[in-house]
Amino acid sequence: MRRLHPSAGTADDADLATPLGLAAAYAYPAPREKDRPYLRANMVASLDGAAHADGKSAPLSSPADMRIFGTLRALADVIVVGAETVRQEGYRPAKARKDFAEQRAGEGRPPAAAIAVVSRRLDLDFDAPLFREPLTPTIVLTGAAAPEQRLAAARAAGAHVIVAPAGEGAGTGGGTPADATAVDPARAVAELAALGHTRLLHEGGPRLLAGFAAAGVVDELCLTVAPLLLGGDAPRIANGPAVPDGPTRFVPLSVLEEDGYLFTRYVRA
Length: 269
What we know:
Elements: E1 2-5, H1 19-25, E2 38-45, H2 63-75, E3 78-82, H3 83-89, H4 98-106, E4 114-118, H5 129-132, E5 139-142, H6 148-156, E6 160-163, H7 185-194, E7 199-202, H8 206-214, E8 220-225, E9 250-258, E10 261-268
Parallel strand pairs: 2-7, 2-8, 3-4, 3-7, 4-5, 5-6
Antiparallel strand pairs: 1-9, 8-10, 9-10
């Protein structure tokens, strides 16, 4: 792996071959305010903008992309993901990584990040390993109209349930007062921060990321650009409600490359 940007005054590229060296390249910034949450999104896209192939991101990925994927998870307190992505990708609990065990323990953090699933209707398999075998209890974020029976099932499976209803114009899909199933991204982020989860990692899917972008809570985007042309009608990485006040400006922080894949890191201007 080599560094393309910035090119001057940076560490040797050989450091990128080590887990801790890669972690240094993706370190969360120091918080501007005490206990302020910082939300980083990690997505992959083809050259023509497809966020997945046949509903899965794996065909767009690479070994280097998976190393970065694992590193970002090891640095995070919590991983935010939509219910549809959980089902399509077969999500399991985050794993503890020995390279980061000492660092996490020294910071008083559990051995692995929690998974926080955003689900309107809680149509999830609560007998799956994600709920029955996590190192850190799985979190469920839902709206005000979530079925009581499903709420009870989530709690019985050991999940920490957070109800974060959307107000007018908010929510993962442009919620309105009549849409009581919607989840408010800003409220969800605040609720996670209240649990001590200030380093957030968002893994999509595209509709959920669009909702978070529209709510103005995305601080950083780590985007892998795969050297592939797919065609077809796959969605973009953010495929949902538009940002209400116009496009949000991001600036490039770093660009890495391996085997033709570009690993970009953008932060909000």
